[in-house]
Amino acid sequence: MQDFHRTKRLLALPLTGIAALLSACGGSADSAAIVAQSAAPLATATTVLQLDPGTLAAADAQQFALPAYHMAPVLLDTPADTASGEAATTVHTQTVPAQFRRLDSRRLTVQALRQAQALRSDTAQADGDTDGSSATPLASTTTVATYTPAQIRAAYGLPTLPSSFSNLSAAQAAQLGAGQTIYIVDAQHNPNVAAELSAFNAKFGLPACASKTIATNASLPLATASSSACELSVVYSTAAGGMTASAPAYDAGWATEIALDVQWAHATAPLARIVLIETASASYDNLLGGVRLANNLGAGIVSMSFGGSESSGTSAADSVFSAANMTYLAATGDSGAGVAWPSVSPKVLAVGGTTLSYSGGTRSEVVWSGTGGGVSAYVATPAYQSTAVPGMGVALRRTVADVAFNADPNSGQYVAVIPSGSATVKWSSVGGTSLATPQWAGLIAVANALRAVNGKAALATPHAALYTNIATVPGTYAASFADITKGSHGSCGACGGEVGYDQATGLGTPNATALLSTLSGLTVQTAPVVTSATINGKVGTALSFTASVTASNAVSYTLGGAPAGMAISGAGVVSWATPVAGTYNVTVTARDSKTGLSGQGVYTVVIAAGTTSTTTGVSGGGPVIKASAMSGVAGRALSGTISITDNSSKSITVSISGAPLGMTFQVSGMQIVANWASPQTGSYTLKVVATNGNGASAALSVPVTINAR
Q1: Do the Cβ atoms of 11 and 48 come closer than 8 Å?
Q2: Mean pLDDT across the stretch 473-499?
Q3: Which residue from 35, 280, 288, 477 puts its CA 20 to 30 A from 694's CA?
Q4: Residue 647 falls in which region: left (phi positive, over 0), alpha (psi -120 to 50) or beta
């Protein structure tokens, strides 16, 4: 083998996504041209790559989500004008016409209803039945109840709207969400959203929202929202979280979703600023781009009324849902029992649905049969879903829903829709967990506005407040939530409403007066958070690392599942004097010395038997590098993967030196894929160093062996 001088080369590439371990392999045994048997010269520089946690791998990024709304198959009569705060005692009901009763309410649109109506009319005329009298009646009829904003406010105990929205005190304005921002993230484009909202406001006595343009080159974050008036802005996002001037294409279903999201977020928090973020498509990467843009725009509440399949890789996006001073909410789905992303993220408040009955004085609810909810196949149980929560039991993994609101389209709520190409407002009765989600977003906005008046910080992630500070205190829980104990959304053993927490409706639906009162003055007690990590070591070398724990008070530590000889100190330092080869899943439990609350994290300890590589800097959850030795045959294409994991949620810089000429590096999630189209015989060593934004680093040597043919 020839000896070549090793110098350095600089190359910057973005690297984002999921960490996974792929083994290297040789190419196919075809009749490739004879390759010189001398070793390849080394590359003349170190390859430097930038990792940005939070981006999905390609297979997940190109999945598509769906809007989680249902529309009752009825074209509603135009509602009567309602003065501000006036809740009519009689709820509007309307019978579904015979020609609509076989229509699926899932993602139904006004256009589809009009087409069905026209088709029925044409068929009747062809049969000589112009009045439809010969149509065979269905066995039963369906009556749709539709609620106004004032009726929903009265049913759930939201503050009564004032007769005038001028000259309000700071406390009165806070009850309406003043000074807060709600981001509505949806796909595609609704060109009539402002006109629809205007019609909705005029009909139901809600404050008007001034349209305000946000320039694509605007300085971010945005200025604080108005303390006395509603503003509506519409922006178009890129997958990277930037803004573009190009509006997405129109889609009737997503346009309906946008209309209901904007109108009912506004109905719940009438003085909050609303920023509608429209993404180019409903792919996961584009929708995450919308969330990234919300993070860039500034503090607020992000409402996501959509969902799709979870996977082993979707948790890679959790850092996108971790921005400071942001709250994230998502619909649990509209197809019955099951788990949907992004609501399954432990960073997101998952909103389920009920069927509401309200007669002007009494509210009763059951589980809506279409609501999503269940146990994740992949996401670990978050600390807030502890056995201290009534009805929770021992959660196997992350369980959704967290909370609920009215969602049945047959106990629906008015939505103003202007179909594409028309200027006429049509009225629909719409439900789905996508209706419940923006209303909970509005509730959080009001809670944050009240907290601001009280000199307290925004709730941001509200899970600890809802689960730990409210649900574990019996009197507070009963006052703040209506516990939904009847109905079901599937045939599974856990699909029904139960006392305390259940998968269909979570903790229940809000008793807003008590809930907002509690949240506005709450000093949130949070359980310790133990950040899981992978720790690498080797036989014959003592292992030591420090558990990464965030806690308000001093904590005590215990280990679960630890191998013989492993121990943890009072300072959280895990040590093992004589490691034994193998892989061990060790649970670190941290218990708060004052509150008694505890959190857990799993440390995967990998002890290699005779090592070809080393790791450094993994103490305290720093970067961890994984790779298998690469081996191949001269002349046959070789590829291998180097994966990085890190729990800091910060960018990571990776440098690779010692690569032979011809070897290239590409980005695939939190992986570096090494490719060598025409390997040359020899032995090489890739030296990989990863450094995160906190300065913690790890190093790994990866052998590359190319055998002669």
Answers
A1: yes
A2: 96
A3: 288
A4: alpha
- Position 127 confidence tier, pLDDT thresholds 50, 70, 90: very low
The CATH code of the domain at 12-52+528-707 is 2.60.40.60
End-to-end CA distance of the chain: 15
Beta-bridge partner residues of 106: 70
Backbone torsions φ then ψ of 242, nearest 5 degrees: -100, -175
Q: Is 549 helix (H, G, I), strand (E, B) or coil?
A: strand
Lookup: tokens for 51 = 């990792």
Asked whether the predicted pLDDT for residue 333 surpasses 80, the reply is: yes
In CATH terms, are 12-52+528-707 and 61-78+143-155+172-521 the same topology?
A: no
3-class secondary structure, 67? strand
Q: Rounded distance, CA 17 to CA 673, Å?
A: 13
* Residue 222: per-residue pLDDT: 97
Report, as an integer, the average pLDDT of 320-346. 96
| pLDDT score, position 261 | 98
User: Average of pLDDT values for 620-633?
Assistant: 82
The pair of three-digit structure tokens given for residue 68, joined into one six-digit string: 């989680």
pTM recorded for the entire structure: 0.74
Rounded to whole angstroms, how far apart are CA atoms 15 and 52?
Answer: 6
Domain assignments of the chain as residue spans, ordered by start: 12-52+528-707, 61-78+143-155+172-521
Q: Can you give the pLDDT at residue 300?
A: 98
Distance CA 305, CA 433 (A): 7
Q: How far apart are alpha carbons 100 and 132 in whole angstroms?
A: 13
CATH class of 61-78+143-155+172-521: alpha beta
pLDDT reading at 11 higher than 90: no
As a whole number of angstroms, the distance between CA 40 and CA 54 comes to 36
Note the pLDDT tens digit of each residue in 396-406. Answer: 999 999 999 99
Among the residues of 252-298, which ranges form H helices? Answer: 252-268, 284-297
Tokens representing 529?
């958070």
